[in-house]
Amino acid sequence: MIDPASVLEAIATLRETRRFLDTPVPDEALAQVLEAATMASSLNNAQPWRFLVLREPSIRRALGDLIDAVSDELYGKESHSITGERTPLRDVPVLVVVCRRPLPTDAEWPSSVPAAPVYAAAQNLVLAARALGLGTRPIVLHRRRDATVRAMLGLPDDVEPCVIVPVGWPETGFGPLFRRPWESVVTYDRWSPA
Amino acid sequence: MIDPASVLEAIATLRETRRFLDTPVPDEALAQVLEAATMASSLNNAQPWRFLVLREPSIRRALGDLIDAVSDELYGKESHSITGERTPLRDVPVLVVVCRRPLPTDAEWPSSVPAAPVYAAAQNLVLAARALGLGTRPIVLHRRRDATVRAMLGLPDDVEPCVIVPVGWPETGFGPLFRRPWESVVTYDRWSPA
Predict the structure, then answer these.
(1) Global pTM?
(2) Mind telling me how many Å the CA of B115 is from chain A's nearest CA?
(3) Interface predicted TM-score of the whole assembly (ipTM), two decimals
(4) Do residues A126 and A167 lie in contact, with contact meaning Cβ atoms separated by under 8 Å?
């Protein structure tokens, strides 16, 4: 039996985690989160996702420092004082690189379509983590350095590292999100530029 | 208090709905589902999603018939006998077009990145629906007819109709999904072509 309120609350309190404890993530919890990710829908059930799970310190350091540097470059180090000091990504116990493998039919679609199931899988991943009390945040900043990331992780050129998700226990908990009222982003029956 | 098992079970039983009852979807349930969609994360909290909710019969008929025709063209009408006769999309009580509005920074990213939050929002939408017992399935087939869809819905050229989600009460329930074992799509610390 599913408690609907639990699902809605998990979705509505999935605050991005910026400060992580260094407590390890149990293998069983990580397995549950990864399995949930694979439950997303995909066209013809092609399941084009692959998950690269980084736990070894040297690779977390290399990739984590790269992403933190991109963040500082885009937003400035001073942004830390606004959003609160974040845990360096190298120190988060697990980094999951959510990848897309190519399919022969990809070129038949507008460019974002083949990645759609992979982003859905990443959303399942962060929601399952939140249900278990694990903190995450979806990162795309590494996409400013695709060539470097590919070289670092040994990714083939045709594999897209869509999202990177740090996973660990949050220093503080979860809470309400700041979003526009849903009514302001919904129109009925025909588009209107609201 | 969130029951973690409810969230994991909702994710693991989100079978795509192909046969819908014609029972109306209550406004309150639709509101909960749409609000959940808006809870996804987005870079700089830009929330680039817009939801076009189609309930008026003539527009559902036009868009639904278009999508069903693309499906028959790609898979053949005989596919119905394999997957079971599906409800014509025109007869599903609600069709939600999950759209992306452009941001000035879109061109700075690889092509699928700006749509990432929109696909995450669509996943929240289908999960919230499943929690409430409402059936859905994410559709991208309309992307073979972007120009026609834009004209039909009055979408500006720069708005991407990422996913269409029919929403209604399922004729049969939910159940386990058929996916590769999660271990077969996970590698550790470095890519390996599994």
Answers:
(1) 0.97
(2) 7
(3) 0.97
(4) no
